[in-house]
Specification:
Layout (H helix, E strand, L loop, with lengths): L2 H13 L11 E10 L2 E5 L5 E5 L15 E6 L6 E8 L2 H9 L13 H7 L17 H13 L1
Parallel strand pairs: 3-5
Antiparallel strand pairs: 1-2, 1-4, 2-3, 4-5
Length: 150
């Protein structure tokens, strides 16, 4: 299988949401930071922090950033790395999990869907914000000028 064909299949698998609820041994976790070498530090709903690994099929094809939610499955031989990524959650799967009461309450921040959409807008921090102040002195001068003439 060529690289392009493999990438296409992996992307389709990752983006296609099968709406399958997590199994008994799988948990939903939040990515805290990337540690490099396909390892990510996560926090569970109970507050436990540990490392998870990215499976080979996702490497160089899918990227996970801080704040993303993922579905992990524990690996028995892990001392430092305790789990492996099974699925990267998107907005649709998060919404589906919330509807089926599978989503952990600790990760529910109470935002509405419209607020979540606005948070995804990129804000350019490289430029200074220019604030324009309009003076109301013209309107106040007109009123004071007409009073002095009378």
């Amino acid at each position: 299988m060529s690289k392009v064909t493999k990438r296409k299949h992996v992307m389709n698998e990752a983006l296609w949401d099968d709406y399958e609820l997590p199994k008994a041994n799988q948990t939903i976790v939040k990515v805290v930071k990337s540690k490099g070498n396909n390892l990510h530090e996560i926090t569970s709903a109970t507050g436990e922090e540990y490392l998870v690994s990215m499976p080979t099929k996702f490497r160089k094809n899918i990227w996970v950033k801080r704040g993303d939610y993922i579905l992990v499955e524990p690996i028995p031989e892990g001392d430092k790395v305790k789990a492996e990524i099974v699925k990267i959650m998107n907005k649709d799967s998060i919404k589906y999990y919330k509807e089926n009461n599978v989503w952990p309450k600790q990760f529910d921040d109470g935002k509405q869907e419209t607020e979540m959409d606005n948070d995804d807008i990129f804000v350019n921090t490289n430029r200074k914000n220019v604030v324009m102040y309009t003076s109301d002195s013209d309107s106040s001068d007109d009123s004071s000028g007409s009073d002095s003439e009378q």
